[in-house]
Automatic annotation (TrEMBL):
This is Carboxypeptidase Q. It is found in: Endoplasmic reticulum; Golgi apparatus; Lysosome; Secreted. The keyword Protein transport does not apply. It comes from Archangium gephyra. Homodimer. The monomeric form is inactive while the homodimer is active. SUPFAM superfamilies: PA domain, Zn-dependent exopeptidases. One of its GO terms (cellular component) is extracellular region.
Length: 484
């Protein structure tokens, strides 16, 4: 791991060329201070703190599914890290679900046409288990939720395979509903089990897990994701006639347990009650070590707090960092924060969530009222050397900050090149070696700078219109941001 990253000559040129703060009162400031830009962006690029901290979280602690010992260790690690940085930190209680994967296996049973094949699979988060002896049934393949209903009686007693053609990150939103709702739709039609092709853009026969949910008033059947290769195998075999599979899933849901959101802040010098929220989720799935999802986001916002905490004077407004609990399988941390801070959400002037991986930054997205882009754009010049100095089309958002939608909190996003995010997303392959230190440093620099801009710019972002509907009820309903 490199201990430092070179600060480009182009960036230094832009920093020194940026307009200096004029002599009049702060309200007249129309651009950033090049000295502050150099201290924030330059430090993020050269000091290597983000990658070193990501190594501590991923290699040192590992998987962090809600309610596990790994999650508890991560909470204490984050608290100690903020304290070591001299940043004020506290813990806010959250009740989180406790789902246990257990042992799992699957196989295609041999027939006159083919020999037995093992299946590479993972239970979906929240699934019930199979009977101890396993579940054996014929497979029926579908491509949509609607197709299940159209098949009628043909689904009864079968394991429904939801196949799809996800190939690029932008396809994730189209396929996510199959994983999330497929089991309930299949169960209501009489199916006894559900499989879904992994939502992935690359695979070496590695299944990708993820959240699913059951309808409260419907039957519950075991549900798992199979690797892309095995979904293709089943598709080929089914073309020649009936196919039976055996599934054994040892998963179960235990009573909810206590956890915490980790909250830290750098108090503002002039308007401390006005809050700029920088968020990421501390939990991960129980497979891999959550390096891109969402260890990268965690260390980005932590590093932003460390660097902003060293500024003298501090930014005009308070910058609050929240490491949310339970984004992956319940969104309890995001909801708990919104409830605990309901009385001050009117003073939340912006919220930014990083949960698209530790990739190269591309620019800034906004969800704000008219005039928001004009307020922020002049302050983004120092990010031009990183290729991230422009306002991009499309809304900003995030699962953990979605409960802030009814309060009309403006959302800001540092968009990254997440085109390869779903190569490893929710799989055993989401490990530190997949994160490029240079890309992570650049994204961290962008987050630190945007956090500073939101806290220092004289005006605040206009609040957006009220949302047309209530916030999503689960993280699965709010897919991770796809590639721009």
């Amino acid at each position: 791991m490199p201990s430092s990253l070179p600060l480009s000559a182009a960036l230094l040129s832009l920093l020194t060329a940026a307009p200096k703060t004029p002599a009049p009162a702060p309200a007249a400031v129309t651009g950033p201070s090049p000295q502050v830009a150099e201290r924030l962006i330059g430090a993020a690029l050269t000091e290597g703190h983000a990658y070193a901290r990501l190594a501590e979280l991923t290699d040192g602690i590992g998987p962090r599914l809600s309610g596990t010992e790994g999650e508890k260790a991560a909470v204490q690690w984050a608290k100690r890290s903020f304290e070591a940085d001299g940043v004020k930190v506290w813990l806010e209680p959250v009740k989180v679900p406790r789902w246990v994967r257990g042992e799992e296996s699957g196989r295609v049973l041999g027939s006159e046409r083919f020999r037995e094949h093992p299946l590479a699979l993972m239970a979906l988060g929240g699934s019930v288990g199979t009977p101890a002896e396993g579940l054996t049934a014929e497979v029926i393949e579908v491509r949509s939720l609607e197709e299940v209903a159209a098949l009628g009686e043909k689904v009864k007693g079968k394991v429904v395979l939801f196949n799809h053609s996800m190939a690029v990150a932008a396809d994730y939103g189209k396929a996510a509903g199959l994983r999330t709702r497929g089991a309930s739709v299949a169960a209501k039609a009489g199916a006894v089990g559900m499989l879904v092709r992994s939502l992935a853009t690359a695979t070496l026969r590695s299944p990708h897990t993820g959240a699913m949910r059951y309808d409260e008033d419907g039957p519950r059947i075991p549900a798992a994701a199979v690797s892309v290769e095995d979904a293709e195998l089943l598709h080929r075999l089914l073309a020649g006639g009936p196919v039976k599979v055996e599934l054994k899933l040892g998963c179960q849901t235990l009573p909810d347990v206590d956890s915490f959101n980790v909250v830290a802040e750098v108090p503002g010098r002039e308007k401390p009650k006005e809050v700029v929220l920088l968020g990421a989720h501390l939990d991960s799935w129980d497979v891999g070590t959550g390096a891109h999802d969402d260890g990268a986001g965690v260390v980005m916002v932590m590093e932003a707090a460390r660097l902003l905490g060293k500024l003298k004077p501090a930014p005009r407004r308070t910058v609050r960092v929240v490491l949310f609990a339970n984004e992956e399988n319940g969104l309890k941390g995001g909801r708990a924060y919104a409830e605990a801070h309901a009385g001050e959400l009117a003073n939340h002037v912006a919220a930014l969530e990083m949960d698209s991986g530790g990739f190269k930054p591309l620019g800034v997205a906004l969800r704000a009222g008219p005039g928001g882009a004009e307020l922020v754009a002049p302050w983004l010049k120092p990010l031009e050397a990183l290729g991230a100095g422009s306002i991009l089309q499309g809304d900003a958002g995030g699962a953990d900050i979605s409960p802030l939608l009814p309060a009309r909190v403006p959302f800001v996003g540092v968009r990254v090149d997440s085109s390869r995010y779903f190569d490893v997303h929710h799989s055993e392959a989401d490990t530190l070696d997949k994160v490029d230190p240079k890309d992570l440093a650049q994204a961290t620099a962008a987050v630190a700078w945007v956090g500073y801009v939101l806290a220092e710019v004289p005006g605040v972002l206009p609040r957006p219109e009220a949302p047309p509907a209530e916030a999503p009820k689960s993280p699965a309903a709010t897919p991770k941001p796809s590639a721009p």
